[in-house]
Write a structure and sequence with these properties.
With 134 residues, the chain is an alpha/beta fold. The protein has one domain: Response regulator (Rossmann fold). It has five helices and five strands. A five-stranded parallel sheet has the order 2-1-3-4-5, sandwiched between helices. Strand 3, helix 3 and strand 4 form a beta-alpha-beta unit. The longest helix is centred in the C-terminal third of the chain and has 13 residues.
């Protein structure tokens, strides 16, 4: 079994954060450990710096600082976790914006079952983002 894959969850919808955490915990072959939850991009940037997650699952549309702005801020720092942007809308404009800010993946929330797990499995099956065993 892999892990732990230290993960920060970011979404302004508390119910979705709980749902996402439960879903991740149900993926038996991945040892995903939720190390923090943030309700906006500002908190996500601060928590990335403090908690050093390997993976960030971030909503696109949030108050105070959206997922694109938060990804840009995280990417400008020295610590670079893998970032998956999650959104309820699978729109090409959003996909393009996610690529432009340097996120590692875009997943529409309606498509996340299976897709999210396969992306995480692919990235972490042989080690951390830096190539070190986890």
């Amino acid at each position: 079994m892999l892990g732990p894959i230290r993960t920060l969850l970011v979404d302004d919808n508390k119910a979705f954060l709980e749902f996402l955490e439960n879903y991740l915990n149900s993926i038996s072959d991945l040892n995903i450990q939720t190390i923090g939850k943030a309700a906006n991009g500002e908190d996500a940037v601060r928590m990335c710096s403090e908690l050093k997650p390997l993976l960030v699952l971030m909503d696109l549309n949030m108050p105070r600082m959206n997922g694109l702005e938060a990804t840009t801020a995280i990417r400008s720092g020295r610590y670079r976790p893998r970032i998956i942007i999650l959104t309820g809308y699978d729109i090409e404009e959003y996909r393009r914006a996610v690529r432009e800010v340097g996120a590692d993946a875009f997943v529409a929330k309606p498509d996340m079952f299976g897709l999210l797990a396969s992306i995480v499995r692919e990235w972490f099956a042989t080690g951390s983002p830096d190539g070190e065993p986890i």
